[in-house]
Amino acid sequence: MPRIALLDKGTAARIAAGEVVERPASVVKELVENSLDAGADRISVEITSGGLDRITVVDNGCGMDREDVVLCLERHATSKVRSLEDLQSVATLGFRGEALPSIAAVSRLTIRTREESTAEGTVVEVDGGRVLNIGSAGCPAGTVTEVRNLFHNTPARKKFMKTASAEAAAITELMGRLALSRPEVRFRLAHNGRVVLETPGNGRLDEAVAAVFGLGQVREMVPFGAENDGIRVSGLAGRPGLTRTTRRYQVFFVNGRYVRSYLLSAALDTAYAGSIPEGRFPVGVLLLKLDQALIDVNVHPAKMEVRFEKGRDVAAQVVLAVRQALTAQPTVPGLNRGPSVQRTGFCGTRPNPSASDGPVTVPAHSLALFEDAGDNPAVRESTPAYEVPSALLALAQLQPTYILAEGPDGLYIVDQHAAHERILYEEFSLALVLGEVGSQMLITPQVLELDATAIATLKRFTDYLAVVGFVLEEFGAHSFVLRGVPVTIAAGAEREALVDIVDRLGEEQPADREQFLRITAASLACHRAVRAGDRLTGAEMQRLLDRLRATSHPLSCPHGRPTMLRLTKSELARRFFRE
Ligand SMILES: Nc1ncnc2c1ncn2[C@@H]1O[C@H](COP(=O)(O)OP(=O)(O)OP(=O)(O)O)[C@@H](O)[C@H]1O
Ligand SMILES: [Mg+2]
User: Fold this and answer.
1) Which tens digit of pLDDT belongs to each residue from 415-451?
2) d(C-alpha 221, C-alpha 239), whole Å
3) Domain hosting residue 85, numbered range
4) Residue 62 and residue 366: Cα distance in Å, rounded?
5) Pocket flag, ligand 1, residue 144 (CB < 6 Å)
6) Ligand 1 atom at minimal distance to the Cα of residue 303
7) Which of 178, 250, 275, 463 has a Cα at 20 to 30 A from 42?
8) 568 Cβ neighbours under 8 A, 6+ residues apart
9) CATH number of the domain where residue 23 is located
10) CA–CA separation, 145 vs 112, rounded Å?
């Protein structure tokens, strides 16, 4: 009996749709991009229940005639390219002719559309890819696309959806990016009837950035722009004092298309190398314009990546333009921590050897000399490569970033920040779980103007944050007032500490209170811990080592970095040919 059978058209379409439509945010992306391609300068999106129940996109673009409305639902039907050659110069965001049929296959889709020149519009209704009805409709010029009951016929996909608020957060973030790509277009996003994002659409990038990232951020950013060899780079770059714990606030557009790009992230890192603490990321909006023939956009099913033909030149220009802007506009005094407080090894990521400038870098050969506690953070927690030393005697401080210590079996180098983080993390975790962290009220409450995504995250976790000591109050649609913070936070660091927690919560989307407390404890610990560069007395070093040994996982910090490296006595003997 044959085992192979052709899938019926509906099943094949639903499977193929999975590539394009992963979650509600991908639907919003496709629909808004269609509106932009249709030349709209006003785009309004309304969602209910994170877009899982309903997504409506209204635009004032060119609209479609009846024939095109029917055709646009067919796979590979597009008005945007005609041949493979056209793809070389495609200036529109769409080009595959796949978005609408994919969305139609997994939802109930209604399109109402009218061209300006015609009096009557068309309405078409489709359910699970089947056209239910095509008729005439009175509607304003432009297109209204409504998607209901997303994934109702693909239960497996539906099961993987996060909560409505997590989906709404993803949509808000995406809309913010699309809005930044076109400051001349007025964007509006409402969730369950409340406006969460609105840009002025007056063509000014700084005003769009203010609407999306918050006014407080844009005040700390400087404009840059340069053009060379047909490559134009422009945008806004955060001053070195404005850093975040994630790359989420780095947004790149290539010829108006929002992309993720390792190359451009690396270029930004290089531009800021040495001027911001390691483990923190600069903030920036970067618009790149270059000959379409020099990029390939057809490398990713969601069109989120591009390949550059002259990648090196592009990166070099970005580095130059951003650096020039940063040096021309000196950092506001008080924002920059200055070179004396070198925060190398600040938490978050593992140290980046290429960016570190001090002699801290472990020479390649010594990687073999010193053992760390393992490589995989998960494994590191449970099965360290060596035992926790039964005693550690502080000998000296290196750099001052590391503590040199003697153990019964050899020499140890302890990263003071990572070690202190581990100690505080365990203390704070326990205190948070027991509800023992009190709150201190701020003498001057602080207004937090944040981007829509951060505000959504704050709203989602306000109750949890209150339990750990953050006293927050909503202040208009886009800001909060911070009135109190957990007592563990040092004076002056209140805002930064909360913003870092919010970034991490947004990134990790904790599903329950336990995960929330873990993330919060790690973030608070990171803030309070001694930094690389802080000088310690002998007694302080010894106390740190003793407290570290008393923790439940002394060998790694809460982010998974090792706290110590060991050089055993036998290794020393072997290296000096004593054995
Ligand atoms: N809001 C709209 N206004 C006017 N025309 C539209 C709109 N949305 C879709 N269309 C028309 O329908 C066609 C099909 O849209 P669809 O999104 O499926 O494909 P595409 O945009 O051409 O390519 P891609 O799959 O890469 O998005 C478009 O080429 C366009 O002509
Ligand atoms: Mg499209």
Assistant:
1) 999 999 999 998 888 888 777 788 889 989 999 988 8
2) 6
3) 9-198
4) 64
5) no
6) 26
7) 250
8) 371, 409, 410
9) 3.30.565.10
10) 6
